[in-house]
Design a protein that fits this description.
Layout (H helix, E strand, L loop, with lengths): L7 H23 E7 L7 H20 L7 E7 L5 H13 L5 E4 L3 H14 L3 E3 L12 E3 L8 H9 L8 E7 L2 H16 L7 E6 L7 H11 L5 E6 L4 H11 L9 E3 L19 E4 L8 H13 L9 H20 L4 H8 L3 E3 L5 E4 L5 E3 L2 E5 L5 E6 L4 E2 L14 E3 L6 E4 L8
Helix pairs in contact: 2-10, 3-4, 10-11
């Protein structure tokens, strides 16, 4: 029996699909697609959505300069809506359907870890702009935020110093998920090496959507009544911080008696509160808007001009995104291609003079060397830098304070070629 001929309708549909595919291929050849994977809705949008605008600003600026490799950059925006699994789903779409050359995105460690298998399977590149717990170095991720050795540990050292108040008792307050728990584990291990008793350390975890902080802050105050100078180090993320800081004000937490040091809040999250009632509390970051440097003047002006002066506030993650984008553009120019393997190799040793005022460099462990800073909140809403490291600190990806991590090395160059091995992958014959 003869086969039925293909109908004209099916032929027409196939022709349309082929023409659409051909057009998309031509279009792809005319532009370099840049994936933007940041939450524009949900609990994390308060912190994360501005990074989408930051990247669009940087892309527009690069295009004014002629783009890269003679092509314009095209932003492709995906909203993972503050959901860990959706980060992975959207990452897959960006890499397989949109054919982006690179992705800038992620916020929580869970969102990053959910997406990493996709990037490793598809050999894509993710530039991640937020501080993390470390204990990870993927061949397909460049980490632009601080590791604990560049933020959490310097924050503790500052608070333990005479300048920081001679703190001897510690409340580790965090959102109940991976980053706060692992960071608190590292901080607790470090405090133990400094002779701090386990009785002088307590960890408290809140739900990701915590809105009522009354009982938690009351328990913090009770712990602080033990007679030793107490500080709170916070790894609370997202919208919950608005209610948390409001509760600090309501319960009259005095920054001079019990300093509250955040690792996760910046100038932007505090804009919805009255900063005068929170003056004196602290933040540990790698950048504050108040930094005095020519590079920061340019960065702040660039952001304000992009927003036509409607928004003039910059923060740590915006600076990290700026650093990552500039380094990626330099690596593409150096490699002469957007091929992932070539760009990855060209990233090692990339350096720029950052808005922080320091020259920062990308290391072969896929983490930046960055300065550590402590800022004190002023009544104006700005953080005044009260301490900073003398020079950028190279990230300790695997914490030496955790026995299971102390012997590990992250180095993606020969002979190690690994993100966490205890001996080189390649050995002399």
């Amino acid at each position: 029996m003869s086969k039925s001929p293909i109908s004209r309708g099916i032929l027409s549909t196939l022709l349309t699909l082929w023409l659409s595919l051909a057009a998309s291929i031509v279009h792809a050849e005319d532009t370099i697609k840049v994936g933007i994977l940041h939450s524009l809705s949900g609990n994390l949008a308060i912190s994360e959505s501005v990074l989408k605008d930051t990247l669009q600003m940087l892309i527009a600026d690069q295009n004014k300069k002629g783009g890269l490799l003679g092509k314009q950059l095209e932003p492709i925006v995906a909203d993972p809506a503050s959901d860990w699994d959706t980060f992975a789903e959207k990452a897959g779409v960006l890499l397989t359907q949109d054919k982006v050359a690179v992705v800038f995105g992620g916020w929580t460690s869970l969102s990053r870890k959910a997406a990493i298998p996709i990037f490793e399977q598809m050999n894509g590149l993710l530039y991640y702009p937020v501080q993390s717990e470390g204990e990870e170095s993927s061949r397909n991720v460049f980490y632009l935020g601080a590791a604990p050795s560049q933020q959490a540990i310097p924050a503790i050292r500052y608070l333990m110093s005479k300048e920081g108040g001679n703190v001897r008792r510690w409340v580790l307050l965090g959102t109940d998920y991976l980053y706060p728990r692992k960071t608190n584990q590292i901080m607790s291990a470090y405090l133990a090496t400094e002779g701090v008793s386990s009785e002088d350390i307590t960890a408290i975890y809140a739900s990701p959507d915590q809105s009522d902080w009354r009982e938690i802050i009351e328990s913090v105050k009770a712990f602080a009544s033990g007679g030793k100078k107490t500080a709170v180090i916070s790894t609370v993320v997202g919208e919950s911080n608005v209610q948390l800081y409001a509760e600090l004000v309501k319960q009259q937490i005095d920054a001079s008696r019990m300093p509250f040091m955040t690792l996760t809040v910046s100038e932007r999250e505090l804009r919805r509160l009255d900063p005068s009632s929170l003056a004196g509390h602290l933040a540990a970051r790698n950048y504050f808007q108040s930094v005095k440097s020519p590079e920061n003047d340019v960065f702040i002006k660039m952001w304000a001009d992009f927003n036509e002066q409607r928004d003039t506030t910059t923060n740590d993650q915006m600076e990290a995104t700026y650093i990552g984008f500039r380094m990626w553009a330099q690596a593409v120019s150096q490699a002469g291609t957007v091929d992932v393997n070539a760009v990855r190799q060209a990233m090692y040793g990339q350096r720029i003079r950052a808005p922080s005022g320091f020259e920062v460099v990308m290391n072969t462990n896929h983490h930046l060397s960055k300065p550590a800073m402590v800022g004190k909140l002023q009544a104006t809403g700005a953080f005044e830098v009260v301490w900073q490291s003398v020079s950028p600190i190279k990230a300790s990806v695997w914490s030496r304070y955790l026995p299971e991590s102390a012997g590990r090395t992250a180095d993606w160059t020969f002979p190690w070629v690994c993100g966490g091995c205890t001996e080189p992958t390649f050995k002399d014959w």
